[in-house]
Amino acid sequence: MKSKVFLLITSYLLLHQSLSFSQTKAEDPHRFFDPKKLTEVGVYYYPEHWDESQWERDFANMKALGFEFVHLAEFAWAHLEPKEGVYTFEWLDKAVSLADKYGMKVIMCTSTATPPVWLLRKHPDIAIMQENGVRLDHGARQHPSFSNTFYREYSLKMIEKLAQHYGQDKRIMGWQLDNEPRPSADYSEVAQQRFRDWLKNRYQTIDKLNKAWGTAFWSQVYSDFSQINIPQLSVRFMNPHQILDYQRFITDETVSFLDEQARTIRKYASPDQWITSNYIPEYGDGHLRASKEQDFPTYTRYQVFGENLGIGSRGYRLSHVERIAMANDFFRPVRNLYGVMELQPGQVNWGQINPQPLPGAVRLWLWHVFAGGSKFTCTYRFRAPIYGIEMYHYGIVGTDGITPTPGGLEFKKFIEEIELLRKVYDPKAKNNAAYEARRTAILYNHENTWDMQRNRQTTQWNTVGHVSKYYDAIKSFGCPVDFIEENTDFTNYKIIIVPAYQLIDSSLVKKWTEYVEQGGNLVLTCRTGHKNRNGQLWETPFAAPIYDLIGSKIDFYDLPLPETPNHVLFDDIAYAWTSWGEILLPNNGTEVWGTYEDDFYKGSTAITFRRLGKGTVTYVGVDSQEGEMEKEVLKKLYSRLSIPILDLPDGLHIEYRDGFGIAVNYADKTYTLPVSNNVKYLIGEKTIPTAGVSVWVANE
Fold first, then answer.
1. Quick check: 7 pLDDT over 60?
2. What is the pTM for the complete model shown?
3. Chain centre distance of CA 497
4. Which tens digit of pLDDT belongs to each residue from 160-196?
């Protein structure tokens, strides 16, 4: 038995670690990574899936392919705690030791996505109850409820044991929380009560809730929080303000569960171990950037699964250039650092159709991840599974456990190429100056997506698709892009684009106005400013709070039928639109940039530009079908501001990092890069083919 003195010393050390973290938490997370390595590459391994006699062979083969770290224990709760309160780490210790023997660090994972069957059978209520009253059962993943209080508490017991065991282990580089966590609706009694408690904490009184939800409509008035249930999301006419709050609630449940895990690990973990979670980049999910306890975010990205068609008849074998680019630019600004925890290694098995990626595609994706600034890339998984729901999913090696797959060989090639860059890396090198001069921000808030997607007003409207039109345009200009939030210092950016920002308040309008008056250039688009933060229209004309800012009024909006598109005229070219068009009434001094070409409002204003203080405001009141209009509007704006831009063809992206230029080509044709003839190519050349990559020392 431990002595009281030992327990006191241990308690002091743990408290000291906790205090040390609180003092260092705000430090730059770049401290976790050696800048001379540029990036590191790792792989998922599940030792519990394979005969123990094969483990050392597998680790040796990982090392031979060049992998620098290994990802363990993601779904291993049943092996870590085979019986209640009985923890077995011996098997995992052996795997960690083998990783260390072959010179690889370890990412250790919590297993909260897959609780063991004995826990479900003893406590079936920890599983999510669906809207139809059916409770999920053991046999899948992500079936437990983040709102179940007992599940949270019991999970933290397991995580505490794991952190106590590995928190001071120098072989552990970092921790992953859960697996691809995302908010899920749970209709259980526990979740109902937590939602009511959340609402009471938010509104304090039922009268304030009634006002925020507009419950006078359809006799929905509540007299007590106990009367409120979780909204039925399948019912078309449920109160939209109640649904908005429920989406906020399940986001908070997800974030708080992850942050509780992080705080538990922090009590025992070395300050040298980082904590993250791997997110699926679905930009309407509110939890993606919200965690306050993680050091930085990571994301998961699969490119080819039969749905993202890309460019040309075989573009589905490469996917669209935006998928990795936008994820890079969305997650990097959170802490100025990100990683990719799962990158597709080859053919998958879970799509509607699962084609082979184009030869070279995996290497292309690896370089694209690197180009955005990632500090590491990991792939799921080393060995292709031979049982379970993910059979036919490729790994780095095939079903024999030995033979590298095409994607495995492309990972090997990328690792070798990174080694080439490490040899010439100059820590004093800076990014291309022209590249940095066109850095642009996109202001984004997931709550706008929630609100508009629930009440689209037309089948033609897609919020993320609308954002993508502006994103694609500025990436074609060769702009570095940061997705930012309202608390960001706007003055860091010469141009900020604010697409379809429907939910606003006076403080945000004030911040926008001050940004422009001080010399910033703001681009606002249709559907901006229509509602307050509760999702209610202002008791004014549409979007009246932004009228002084944009120098126009909004007379009305129109939604044509898809089979009879209308057109907007910009610089003598007509562009079709069907999803949303606002008819503007510009003030004197506001320039008219675009007008409507059809219908009873022909000749009315659609796009405006004005100067305000030292800056400018552009308002694009219409959403075009293809996005070409948006691109031309932005091109005109950058020209007005004397910001030089590129004119990259569809599918070609160019980025700069660490003194290197990187080009990737997702198009179905070969291009010539618009860079100086004097640059030194380390990989590829000035002519870049389909799935090609070119890397050069950025001295132009």
1. no
2. 0.95
3. 18
4. 999 999 999 999 999 999 999 999 999 999 999 999 9
- Per-residue pLDDT of 236-278, as tens digits, reads 899 999 999 999 999 999 999 999 999 999 999 999 999 999 9
d(CA 373, CA 38): 9
Angle at 692 between CA 686 and CA 696, to 5 degrees: 45
For residue 620, which of 518, 501, 483 has the smallest C-alpha distance? 501
Distance CA 582, CA 605 (A): 8
632 φ/ψ angles, rounded to the nearest 5 degrees: -70, -35
Number of Cβ within a 10 Å radius of residue 227: 10
Burial of 201 (0-12, 13-18, 19+ CB in 10 A): exposed
CA distance 205 to 222: 11
How far is 195 from 161, CA to CA, in rounded Å? 30
Greatest CA separation for the chain? 87
For residue range 654-695, list pLDDT tens digits in order.
Answer: 999 999 999 999 999 999 999 999 999 999 999 999 999 999
| C-alpha–C-alpha distance, residues 526 and 476, integer Å | 22
109: tokens are: 């994972």
Let me know if 155 is exposed, middle or buried by CB neighbors in 10 A (0-12, 13-18, 19+): buried
SS3 223: coil
Other Cβ atoms less than 10 A from the Cβ of 326: the count is 23
Per-residue pLDDT averaged across 571-577, rounded? 98
Query: Which residue type occupies 172?
Result: I
| Cα 444 from Cα 326, distance rounded (Å) | 12
| Residue 406 CB-half CA count within 13 A | 9
To 10 degrees, what angle do helices 240-266 and 149-166 make?
A: 30
